[in-house]
Design brief:
This protein has 418 residues and is mainly alpha-helical. It folds into two domains: 23-208, Up-down Bundle (Growth Hormone, Chain: A), CATH 1.20.1250; 231-416, Growth Hormone, Chain: A (Up-down Bundle). The chain has 17 helices and no strands. The protein has helices spanning 23-30, 33-49, 52-60, 66-91, 96-116, 120-134, 136-151, 156-185, 187-208, 231-261, 268-285, 287-294, 296-314, 320-346, 353-381, 384-404, 411-416.
């Protein structure tokens, strides 16, 4: 689907308007950073809310920590349903803008409710549902980016990589900014501020996303048509799940593992994440080259093996220098995973990008939920160092699955842009 002169995936080095594009699509084709900017704003807004959940339930509402799990379960379950529904809607040619605005509005309303009513049951019964719907925006934006790349003749693999870079950049800044804001002003003003970010995100969406933008695939699902079973798509989500769980297990255990069991300064986890995120962004940028050399599946296999090696090494780390040096390997393996995994899954259902992307994002959400739950259970039964071994095992299982499964039949055509 790659047009002449669009090899870098972002800039259109050609001149003039491409045939068949509407005026607003022609503008986005000339300035594709607008599409990327929309995702960056969304990633910044949504990531700003992520680190507050535990603090809000335990410190703000005075509830037991286990009640946070109930909120997480409700939110993830709603997100899974929304991702599936929105994915099918995209493949049935429902305009993307309607779905995206719906999610953003729910996210903003949820943030406002948390600021107005600091009551646990409001959080569990209302806000968590709204935030679950709001989380569906990520899948919709990834689908929008994929379809935009195809319709404007861009390199899909490279553009997917740029989409993931925006997500990583948003997560590099959002959590730290919201925690800093919370430390000065408290919960309610912080949630109002995030609701303000959601308003900016919504306005940006209304301005940038064309109202009639929808899937162009001839095999998109018709209204009332059932989604055919796709074993390849489901199998592609399996290694994504295991590698994703490995990352979540380690990240959730890392602050306490470093401070309480390695005896490092409290800020060591923050320094390690900074190194990881920097390397991750650089690696994602070059993932398209790796894919052209070895393909998506082998690239994912490299990521899984590097992940297993990283967890094995960090298990034996003792000093801050060890931690920071190994954080570069952490960023390397996760950068490859982040840069390839979405394209890897999408290539098992190229004519249903909405469904494929919803499966991908849902897999990450489920992996995140299970990873957080396992971290608490294993750390309580053993210690945080044991969770690192568990993360290593998950990454290794992901590598085994990738080693025995087959490549997607569409992977070569996408890589070559034909």
């Amino acid at each position: 689907m790659q047009g002449d002169g669009a090899d870098d995936g972002v800039s259109d080095v050609g001149s003039g308007q491409k045939a068949g594009l509407s005026p607003i699509m022609a503008v986005l084709d000339r300035y594709p950073f607008l599409v990327l900017g929309l995702l960056l704003v969304g990633a910044f807004a949504s990531s700003s809310a992520a680190p507050l959940a535990g603090l809000y339930v335990v410190e703000g509402l005075g509830q037991a920590p286990w009640k946070l799990s109930l909120v997480a379960i409700v939110q993830v379950c709603v997100t899974l349903i929304v991702n599936r529904t929105f994915g099918h809607a995209i493949d049935r040619a429902v305009p993307v803008k309607f779905l995206l605005v719906t999610s953003i509005l729910c996210f903003g309303i949820g943030m406002t409710l948390l600021g107005l009513f600091q009551i646990y049951w409001v959080y569990l019964g209302i806000a968590s549902i709204l935030l679950g719907i709001g989380s569906g925006a990520l899948s919709v934006m990834y689908s929008f980016g994929r379809l935009f790349a195809e319709q404007t003749g861009r390199d899909v693999v490279k553009f997917n990589g740029f989409l993931r870079i925006q997500t990583s950049l948003g997560w590099m800044v959002g959590p730290a900014a919201s925690l800093s804001f919370y430390g000065v002003y408290g919960f309610a003003p912080t949630y109002y501020a995030i609701a303000g970010l959601a308003a900016i995100w919504c306005v940006t969406c209304l301005v940038i996303v064309p109202g009639a933008f929808k899937s162009h695939h001839p095999n998109s699902l018709k209204t009332g048509q059932k989604v055919p079973f796709n074993f390849g798509l489901l199998s592609a989500c399996v290694p994504v799940f295991f590698i994703g769980v490995a990352n979540v297990v380690f990240v959730s255990a890392m602050p306490l593992y470093f401070s309480t069991e390695l005896g490092l300064v409290a800020s060591s986890a923050g320094f390690a994440l900074t190194v990881k995120c920097f390397v991750e962004v650089v690696v994602i940028y070059f993932c398209a080259t790796l894919i052209k050399c070895v393909g998506e599946r082998k690239g994912m296999l490299i990521a899984a093996l590097l992940g297993a090696v990283f967890f094995g090494l960090i298990y034996h780390a003792t000093t801050l220098v060890d931690v920071l040096a190994l954080a570069a390997i952490d960023g390397l393996y996760y950068g490859i995973f982040a840069g390839i995994s979405m394209t890897f899954v999408q290539n098992f259902a190229t004519d249903q990008p909405g469904v494929a992307t919803s499966y991908y994002v849902s897999t990450l959400f489920v992996g995140g939920l299970i990873g957080n739950l396992l971290t608490g259970v294993v750390a309580s039964a053993f210690d945080f160092q044991t969770t690192v071994l568990m993360a290593c095992a998950f990454a290794f299982v992901g590598a085994v699955v990738l080693a025995v499964m087959r490549d997607a039949k569409h992977s070569a055509s996408v890589r070559q842009g034909s």
